[in-house]
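Morning!

This is the sequence you dropped in the shared folder:
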Amino acid sequence: MVHRTLFQFQDLDADMPQLHPLIVPWSISPSTPSLGFASRNIDGVNHGYVTFVGFLGETTKLCSQHGRYKQIAVVLEQVQFAKLYPENSASDSARIDGYDWSLVPNFADENNALKGATRRFQDQWNATDLCPQPSAFTVHDSELLSDLRVPVDKFKHYLFVGDDFNVEVVAKSMTWQVVEAPAEAASSS
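The structure's back. Tokens below.
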């Protein structure tokens, strides 16, 4: 098993399902084991909820509004499949390693050296307000979509990579929101 870091990638393999980073302004915090999944059936429709501590960048708009770290909730509509599994599970890690990671940026310099990669990563994120590698992906050419026999033009295969757990979900759509902590109850004396 290969544990993926922020800047690793492999060469393109046309036979492998390809990961595309989600276009979002946050990243699943790589140092906080907080990735979770819950589901709920509402009026016969399955909804999935992926929650985690999100890193919001250094000088991004989202960071200036909420701080560097905040709870994020991803809401997935019409869930057809969901699986939460340990990052070090041998059988499930084989699936992760079976994805083409070539579109996941590695921020190497012109000599393919990673020295300074973290700074280049942060600079791009700060300049665009979009995280270039959020540890959340759509899986293109997914065999799982075919296996489930869902319309590939209407459903997506999502992958969320956490420190201790990974979550894979097939759903029709995805939205996200920053979770604000409820106001602390006033203490009585």
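Headline: The mean pLDDT is 86.

More detail when I'm at my desk.
O.
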